[in-house]
Each structure stands twice: as structure tokens, then as C-alpha cells.
Design goal:
single chain, alpha/beta, six-stranded parallel beta sheet, four-stranded mixed beta sheet, 12 helices, 12 strands, 39% helix
Length: 312
């Protein structure tokens, strides 16, 4: 609204998970001219070219807009399978240093796209459905590309960086990729700059100690796990997280054995959740003896199975 009031002829667009899964949200406002849905590096470039040359921008692939009270969604460009064809992110055109490193002492990175699991509160399966994929199987940048991106940041800001945070939904489910990344990280980041890293893993990946030993050797110091709920039935039937308390406990125990810090993240407020279920989440966290924990309040997102269930 501020942009439209100041510049009535400006074109305003939005992208991301919410516009991708819920294009009908365009009907809720007069201040956004359209959404770019899905993966949009190529589509955004096309959109900007059209605007610059005075061409009809609403014909851009991935674009969604309102016409006569109805939302029109254009065809989606295919997903980028070879992520190395995209350039390294330019971290100087937005306040990456000021808002991330300076405020938190952590340098965040994202290297893979997708997650093969089907948690009902998450966008991954809905994103896969949008692109007619069975699951949102991860696509990988090459380990060399990832290390180069870290090097560019660490060379410039190493005095202000305490650690590296790799925020991929799941870090390196592909064993070959993970081993190559860890080998390069150890040599070019850990040994040269002494910067350790934190990753997100599923507890199922940590039932033996080999994965954790490789990560620890490369410079990992903390593993981030989504525990979400301490109630097995709720995890299985409501969240589609098919893991037992025993599986979760073993992953945390293996981390502790290998000198790795742990972060347990939980969610409360799922539909049908009782006070006793929340107490079971607290009790499970106590048993895990994690280094630190966090709790989020469930929010139903349009376009996710559990979100749509709540709105219905």
C-alpha cells in the first residue's frame, strides 16, 4: 500500500512459498499486481525484460494475476535441474552482512533444494505436486560451488563470523555429495579459517555413528533436529513423521557420544493436540538432554495438507 500510494503506476509483485501454494490470496488485496510462483530465477528475468521493454508482463511463465475477479495462473517453467547453471548469489545487493552476520554472528547458507519427506505442516509435498513430482526429491549444487560461496563470505567477513549455518531442509542426504562437501570444507574452511558449521538432519540419518563422525571431522559442531512432538501417535497420524521415541533418542545419544551439540526444535498447537500431548513433548525433550531447544506455535499454511485441513 505504501508503494502504491507513493508511486501509483509501480508494479508490485510477490513470490515465495505462500504465493506459490495459495495464489488465491491475490483476491485479498488490491495492492499486489501479481505473484511469481514456484522456482523463479528464469521467470523473474523474463518478467523484468518484459517490463523494461513495455511488453505484456502478465504473459510471463509462473505469473499469477487477477482478471475479472478470477485468479489466472500461468504455466510454470520447469525446475532447474542443474543448479550450477545459476550464478552464486550476490550478497551485496541486500543487507546479508548487516542483518545476518552482524546481528547473529552466524553466516547462513542454502545449498540444496527440496526434501523427500511428507510432513503435513510443510510445503515440500505440495511443491512436488505442483510440478507433478512424486516427492520433492533434493536437487544439489556441486560441493565445489557451495564451498566457493562460503569462501567468498568467510574471506570477507571471517572476523565477524562465529560459525556457518547451513539451513538446507536436510543436509546432504546423498552420501557421495556429503562426503565430498565435508572433505572440501575441512581443507578450505575449517583448517584455513577455523570456522565450524551447524546443519539440519533427520533422526533417521543418525542411527549409526558414521555420518556424525564424518561431519564432526569436517568441522560440524551442532546438529539441528526437528523433534516437533513428543507424542508418537500425533507424530505418526497427524504430522506424517514416522519416527519412534526410541529412534529420536538414539540420534541424540549418538551426537552426544561424538561430542556434537544438539538443538531440538518443537511445535505445539497442532489440531487435536491436548495438554497431555504437550506435556509429553516437554518430557521427551528432558530425556534427550539436548544442548538447546526451541518451540514454535503451529500456524496453518494454505496449500499444505494440515493447513488446508484446519481451514476446512
Amino acid at each position: 500500500k505504501l508503494a502504491k500510494d507513493a508511486l501509483p503506476n509501480v508494479i508490485t509483485i510477490a513470490g515465495g512459498v505462500h504465493p506459490t501454494l495459495s495464489p488465491d490470496s491475490l483476491l485479498e488485496t488490491d495492492y499486489i499486481d501479481g505473484f511469481l510462483r514456484g522456482e523463479c530465477e528464469i521467470a523473474l528475468e523474463d518478467f523484468l525484460d518484459r517490463v523494461s521493454n513495455g511488453l505484456p508482463y502478465k504473459e510471463t511463465d509462473n505469473f499469477a494475476y487477477v482478471d475479472d475477479g478470477k485468479v489466472i495462473t500461468n504455466e510454470l517453467k520447469p525446475l532447474v535441474n542443474d543448479l550450477d547453471t545459476l550464478p552464486l548469489p550476490d550478497k551485496d545487493i541486500y543487507p546479508y552482512f548487516e542483518n545476518s552476520i552482524k546481528m547473529t554472528t552466524a553466516a547462513p547458507f542454502f545449498f540444496t533444494r527440496g526434501c523427500p519427506y511428507t510432513c503435513t505442516y510443510c510445503m515440500n509435498q505440495s511443491f512436488a505436486d505442483l510440478y507433478n513430482r512424486k516427492r520433492n526429491f533434493p536437487r544439489y549444487r556441486s560441493p565445489e560451488s557451495c564451498i566457493q560461496e562460503i569462501e567468498h563470505v568467510v574471506e570477507k567477513h571471517h572476523k565477524d563470523i562465529e560459525y556457518i549455518f547451513i539451513g538446507d531442509d536436510i543436509f546432504g542426504p546423498n552420501l557421495k555429495w556429503r562426503k565430498e562437501f565435508c572433505t572440501k570444507y575441512k581443507k578450505r574452511i575449517l583448517e584455513k579459517y577455523n570456522k565450524k558449521f551447524m546443519v539440519l538432519l533427520r533422526v533417521e540419518m543418525c542411527q549409526n555413528e558414521e555420518t556424525l563422525q564424518v561431519l564432526k571431522d569436517a568441522g560440524a559442531f551442532r546438529i539441528f533436529f526437528g523433534v516437533e512432538s513428543g507424542d508418537e501417535a500425533q507424530r505418526r497420524e497427524v504430522l506424517d513423521r514416522q519416527m519412534t521415541d526410541k529412534t529420536i533418542q538414539k540420534a541424540f545419544d549418538n551426537c552426544h557420544k561424538n561430542g556434537l551439540e544438539t538443538l531440538a526444535v518443537n511445535i505445539i498447537g497442532f489440531p487435536g493436540e491436548t495438554e497431555e500431548m504437550i506435556k509429553s513433548t516437554v518430557k521427551l525433550n528432558q530425556k534427550l538432554k539436548m544442548t538447546s531447544s526451541g518451540v514454535n506455535i503451529f500456524y496453518p499454511y494454505h496449500g499444505t495438507p494440515l493447513g488446508d485441513y484446519c481451514f476446512e
